[in-house]
Amino acid sequence: MASGLNSYNSLNRAVRIKDMARIVEDNKIMLRKLQGAASCYSIDRWNQDDKKKKKLVKMICRNSDRFLKNPYFLCNGLPNTTLGTANSEHSFYGFGAGTHF
């Protein structure tokens, strides 16, 4: 005995065929709507945003070492793994080894 859509012994074959036809028609309507929809992206705005982001990245790269060179950040409990020990960092910036802030 065969089963599925082509089975003539199925009691709900007509309902399944009607449902499949409805789904196909709904898909066609949705496809027409999608193909007819205009884009909401502005290429000019997209390019401007890209330029701003690239400029920001460039500025961050250019100025990222300022954080490590500032004595305020070196003495306030931040990890000092990049420049060595705390005493060598203070002497590097002109402060004595015993100077505390």
Task: Tell me the layout of helices and strands.
Layout: H1 13-36, H2 43-63, H3 66-69, H4 71-74, H5 86-92
Q: Show unreliable segments.
A: 83-90
Topology as a string of helices (H) and strands (E): HHHHH
Query: Taking all residues together, what is the mean pLDDT?
Result: 76
The total of beta strands comes to 0
**Helix segment count?**
5
How far the N terminus sits from the C terminus, by CA atoms, comes to 90 Å
Q: What Rg is obtained from the alpha carbons, in whole angstroms?
A: 34 Å
Structural class: mainly alpha
Query: Mind summarizing the main beta sheet?
Result: none
Strand content: under 5%
Multimerization status: single chain
The helix fraction, in percent, is 55-70%
Described by the principal axes of the CA atoms, the overall outline is elongated
Give your account of this protein's structure.
The structure is a single chain. The chain has about 100 residues and is an all-alpha fold. Helices cover about 60% and strands about 0% of the residues. The protein has five helices and no strands. It is elongated, with a radius of gyration of 34 Å. Residues about 85-90 have low confidence and may be disordered.
Name the features.
single chain; 101 residues; mainly alpha; 5 helices; 0% strand
